[in-house]
Amino acid sequence: MALKNVIGIDHAVVMVKDLDKAAENYRQLGFTVSPRGTHSAHMGTGNYTIMFDPDYMELLGVLVATEHNAPARAFVERHGEGIERIAFTAIDSAAGAEEIRARGLTPIGPTDFERPVTLPDGTISAAKFRTFMWPTAEAPGGVRIFACQHKTRETVWIPELMRHANAARRIKQTLIATPEPAKEAAHLARLIDREAKTDADGAATVPSGGDRADFVYLTLDQLAKRYPGVPLNGLSERGGAALVLISGDLAATERALGSAAVRSGAGICVPPAKANGTLLAFVAG
Question: Cross-referenced Pfam families, in alphabetical order (predicted)?
Fold first, then answer.
């Protein structure tokens, strides 16, 4: 039976080494980037968000080493920059944590936290969240998963931040590289009570729930065949590899991306070396 308190992908977390440089890089790629947020001293991290509808991307960096961010630091040391974890939307994080506990998994949390937010009119408010994580060891394809309950959606989904020069509208797929796509997809499907299906090229897709983006597990060879001509330098054979983004206007996408754009099939891509370790593939809506 599907989880009642957890629905599909909420946001993708891209770990970066230099938070401010990463934000500027994404601005140069035509994204509207939020003001910088700073998390609690316990978390020791800061972020910038790139808001879509109904999901978003988060650029996350470690500002001060803490016990809490040790897994994130280990990820960067091991893999470099890239997609480190994926969040689901939680309707109720406390109830969601109990749902996975009833399935024999020990949740981390739920944990309440907040960060200051500068609103478009210059006033300061707060974005407040309650999250829980699946056990750290339960990371299909090397990507951790957690659920995020937004207690103040109005301070996160701000209309001015949701318009992008590159016409990005939402996430269609999260692509995770692995030598064993079927095995990793089955692992995720078990964790979130969904069914995996095999794609024509041997990759494996797991719907995340609702109308949200799908997870796709595939080998680096399969990824290269899906996006011919796109250099994949820097991607690990196991871990978050790419985000497929729906564009409202591919001509605008190509103009905004400038020299970073690589045409591949029916889409326009940014190689991972130019997007902080994440292949970005823009496709028509």
Answer: Glyoxalase_3 (PF13468)
